[in-house]
Amino acid sequence: MSAPTDASAQRALSTFQSTLSDPFTNAVINAMSPETPERARVVLTSLIRHLHSFARDVNLLHPEWLLGVNTLNRAGQMSNDARNEGILVSDVLGLEALVDQITQDAMTSMAEGAAKEATLSCILGPFFRENAPLYQNGTDIVQKHSEGDEKLRTFMDGHIYDAETGKPIADAEVDLWHTNPNGLYEQQDPEQPEYNNRGKFKTDANGYYSLECLCPTSYPIPYDGPAGDMLKLMGRHPMRPAHIHIMVRKPGYATLTTQIYDRRDPYTLDDSVFAVKDSLIVDFKETEKKGVAYELTYDITLAKAKDL
Ligand code: MBD
Ligand code: FE
């Protein structure tokens, strides 16, 4: 860079240089009020630091920044009750998987000498709905079967255990959801009844739950928005491995949000949102049981919630 020739150029240059340097970042951070709550201060300070250092690192140009802003806006504009593009963008960048891991580590307390290992958590994803119907054990969560379902019908059962004592937990709520074989969750598909393929169950006095569902299928995450654009830019496919979402709630324990995966699915080793963990991979067993094609026993172990 050639030397500035007059005072105004010198001023412009020094503004430019200070904007590119840490003192500028510090000035932005230091503008924060002393009243800002502690956690917000920590998060915003780090966010500003990382955003600034990201922009410096890639030499972010104004048109690129605007593209990013417009992408965020478009993600918001296309989101609604049935579509959560913000979560999808997070997911393809691996951010929800990372945050999920941080959360499980932070929120669960594993007592020393615990009887069992707690079941690992997995990301919530964009398709959870509160208030799924509560069914009696053994009920089929599929409200409307379609042709071909008979080959996928599954009897699923298991026990819920306390990690510390190894004893079963009665009256725990097990909430499950999965796609239809067409790869769509109920809220994405006008052909499915409300809350199809979703249901809650309560464990009995022995900590036992049971239900019928479908052996899940792999499917592409919606890729007609920003998340899909990013996948295409990075040369990645949109497929998620076949999975069943499970959430287990019981007062006194850390709520467990997880997913189980079919070992036979090739995408189980190549998930577009980086969520699969070895211990969450299961074997759907062909069965002679009446009315179903598969059976699956899946026991779940809950850790106590950490006192924060
Ligand atoms: C899904 O079905 C899902 O579970 C996640 C995590 C992301 C996209 C689609
Ligand atoms: Fe899912």
TrEMBL record:
Domain Intradiol ring-cleavage dioxygenases per the UniProt entry, residue ranges: 124-302
GO molecular function, one term: catechol 1,2-dioxygenase activity
Highest taxon of source: Eukaryota
Classification via CDD domains: 1_2-HQD (cd03461)
Residue span(s) of domain Catechol dioxygenase N-terminal: 38-106
GO biological process terms, semicolon-separated: catechol-containing compound metabolic process
Cofactor: Fe(3+)
InterPro entries: 1_2-HQD/HQD, Catechol_dOase_N, Intradiol_dOase_C, Intradiol_dOase_core, Intradiol_RC_Dioxygenase
SUPFAM superfamilies, sorted: Aromatic compound dioxygenase
Keywords for this protein: Dioxygenase, Iron, Metal-binding, Oxidoreductase
Pfam families to which the protein is assigned, alphabetical: Dioxygenase_C, Dioxygenase_N
Family the entry assigns: Belongs to the intradiol ring-cleavage dioxygenase family.
PANTHER family for the chain: DIOXYGENASE, PUTATIVE (AFU_ORTHOLOGUE AFUA_2G02910)-RELATED, INTRADIOL RING-CLEAVAGE DIOXYGENASES DOMAIN-CONTAINING PROTEIN-RELATED
Protein name, UniProt field: Similar to Catechol 1,2-dioxygenase acc. no. P86029
Taxonomic lineage from the root: Eukaryota, Fungi, Dikarya, Ascomycota, Pezizomycotina
